[in-house]
Amino acid sequence: MSSRSKKVERATNETKISMSFDLDGEGKYKIDTNAPFLDHMLSLFAKHGLFDLEIKASGDVEVDRHHVVEDIGIVLGEAIYKSLGNKAGIKRFSFISLPMDEALVALSLDISGRPVLVYNVKCPQEKTGDFEVVLAEEFFKALTNSAKITLHINLLYGNNTHHIIEAIFKAFGRVLSAATRIDKRIKGIPSTKGKL
User: Fold this and answer.
1) pTM, 2 dp
2) Which CATH architecture has domain 5-179?
3) Cα separation of 104 and 161, whole Å?
4) Which of 144, 151, 142 is nearest to 108 (CA)?
């Protein structure tokens, strides 16, 4: 594990989550969330972002998957935030337009210290498999709040819900990887405030 890696745990009456996350990984992952579609999406995030990610999660999925999905977002956001340390030398901003077959998404990211999510995504179906697509927005809302990042997610077009959500998770991996890279030309914190 690199110096920009963290282990985070969260236990509530609804969920139990254990996670290790490495910003400077190789795209290795081992994920078990009791939500197979989310496992697939988080694997794509890790693979395309070149993050090493291990997650073991359990929760009251007999009610629905809302609690476990939201809490994984909270824990991953916390892991990202802690892994960045004081943010010295990072590129901070990133943007990507990413296709998945007929779907095209555009994501913009600022490691700003200000939690903001703009989510302009209307999926044509309410579910992909047994995964309710509204949970994707809840995941990113929880993540942006605990990571303290500004993230804009825009669906430009697409008619396959699986492809749309998959493109979003792949794109998030890529923008996070780019924005968190160290640039040797950047001295200290990339802000005129001197703090992020």
Assistant:
1) 0.96
2) 2-Layer Sandwich (3.30)
3) 12
4) 151
Burial of 149 (0-12, 13-18, 19+ CB in 10 A): buried
Candidates 59, 64, 66; CA nearest to 11 is 59
- Residues 181, 178: Cα–Cα separation, whole Å: 5
Which amino acid is located at 29 in the chain? Y
CB 182 within 8 A of CB 90: yes
Q: Do the bridges between strand 93-100 and strand 103-110 make them parallel or antiparallel, or are there none, so unpaired?
A: antiparallel
Going by C-alpha positions, the residue among 77, 73, 63 that lies closest to residue 137 is: 73
* pLDDT digits 0-9 by tens, 109-159: 999 999 999 999 999 999 998 899 999 999 999 999 999 999 999 999 999
Rounded distance between C-alpha atoms, residue 42 and residue 29, angstroms: 9
Instruction: Report the distance separating Cα 92 and Cα 75, nearest Å.
Output: 21
Closest CA to 79 of 59, 115, 55, 103: 55
Say if residues 27 and 1 touch (Cβ distance below 8 Å): no
59: nearest Cα among 36, 34, 41, 77: 34
Query: Is-contact 100 170, C-beta < 8 A?
Result: yes
Query: Helices 36-49 and 134-147: crossing angle, nearest 10°?
Result: 50
What pLDDT was estimated at residue 134?
Answer: 96
Q: Please give the average pLDDT of every successive group of 10 residues along the chain, which has 196 residues.
A: 91 94 98 93 98 93 79 98 96 98 98 98 94 96 98 98 98 98 94 87
